[in-house]
Amino acid sequence: MTRKTTSLLAAAAVAVSGTAMADNTTDAAQKAHMTYLAAINSNDTARLLDAVTDDIVLIAPNAPPLVGKDAVAPWVAGYFDAVETTWKKQTLEFVVGDGWAFERYSYSVVDRPRDGAPASTDTGNGINIYRLDPDGVWRVARDAWATDRPMPLTYEGMGPF
Prior knowledge:
Nuclear Transport Factor 2, Chain: A; globular; six-stranded mixed sheet
């Protein structure tokens, strides 16, 4: 085998190895999506908090941002106490690089009030930003979503927002 052929084979091996590593990283980040969705649908606050970073930022429709697990925990617990929720998320875009990943998704959700009131449904879209934590686990660092429901607010000369 010539030196040139050996160099080309070595370069190809590195390229294939790099592709496999990138695919494994992408697979791991996308697995974080499934872990997060399962945690939401478990209706278990502790499980959900394990799927997010300590500095999580949660931006829910028509609400101020919640920053950090200490702020998110009571909100999530209140939500899970009030309803049994089932979310479906369809990934529309997933990009991974340098220990961060973002996902653009559409969703549908059914919330069944625990007090027996009729269930409510919603659809919308959102963005999750994932970070590879020092322990090697991908977690949600940012979660922001927008409902398809029109906002009830109107302003003079303008329709609902």
